[in-house]
Amino acid sequence: MKKKSGLLRIALSLLIIAGLVRFAMTVNWHSTWHTITAADRTILLAAAAVNLLSLAIKAVRWWVFLRPVGANSLGLALKATFAGAGLNNILVANGGEAARVIFVARAAHVQSAKVLATLALERFFELIGYIVLLALSVSFLDLPASLTRWKPVAWAALVGVIALMVFLVRRPERAEAVAAVTVVGWRARFTAYMKHFMHTIGGISTGPRFIVALVLSVGVWALQVWTYSLTAHAAHFDLPMVGTVAAILLVNLGFAARLTPGNVGVFQGMYALAAAGFGLDKNESIAVAFLIQAQQIIPVTLLGVALAPEFIFKRKQAVRKEDTGLDLHDRADTAKVKRDLTGD
């Protein structure tokens, strides 16, 4: 079974590479390079700054969920977010997300199951922000037919995520404690890990936190629209705002999994497809896509790689008191839970 899965992964990778090579052969690289070199450097720097701001807001969104589990430092959330994003740009399949969990768990001495739960909610709201943007755009903007046909799916997805948010906030077992037990064997350890994970999801899922996370998510996607628009303006690429929104929707269709490091190649193809829907030149659109990725990848990667060693070489505390349960209550509540569990 593993062999078949490996062969399928290799075949898919080769297919993607072949498609990218074929696409690259149709590009007039001289024209593309001319567009890149003629871009306004000042506006590109402004676009890079806006992009860094959007990443910082993502870190704040994560921090909203990290605080209840004992990782109170906003600076730590910022550093880990930038480090993870930087690693995402040099790894496939969003490998930097796993690094984020390890970084915070080690630095804050918090059980990794708890950190993973907070990250799951943070990424969930990234998806919610995209779905909100998609649903509103296909309903009220004059987008290409390739996007407007997704209107029923977008609204169904929006209803689904709203229902899931309501369920997480209202689930009655969210305040229950998980007993500290000694487990033997990988199955038992995995089961215990998932219990801590699910308990944390329930414990930190509250209406106020969800409202704040939703507002921050809208802000993140709005800043991304601004980043794309500034970059197109810097390259003198006359893509209207509705075209910029269409491009963002297309290039982020597969944001949950990156098929290439930094999604290079795939990003350019999808951006060119969106621009073509508005009658713009393919070679110029590819140049703009490269500029967008350059100002998104280079600063973030440099910051991320600079920050990663701080976490990688940070020694892990031998014994973490948070491993005994979920610290989602005040001290009096925690003491009561312990008394109930021990019978004292």
Task: Outline the secondary-structure elements.
Layout: H1 2-25, H2 29-37, H3 41-66, H4 74-88, H5 95-108, H6 112-140, H7 145-148, H8 151-170, H9 186-204, H10 207-234, H11 241-251, H12 266-276, H13 282-312, H14 331-342
In total, the number of domains comes to: 1
Outline, from the CA principal axes?
globular
Structural class: mainly alpha
Tell me roughly what share of residues is in helical segments.
over 70%
Largest sheet: none
Write down the Rg.
Answer: 22 Å
Tally the helices. Answer: 14
What does this structure look like?
This protein is mostly helical. The chain has one domain. Helix content is 74%, strand content 0%. Helix 6 packs antiparallel against helix 8. The longest helix is centred in the C-terminal third of the chain and has 31 residues. The chain is globular. The C terminus is likely disordered.
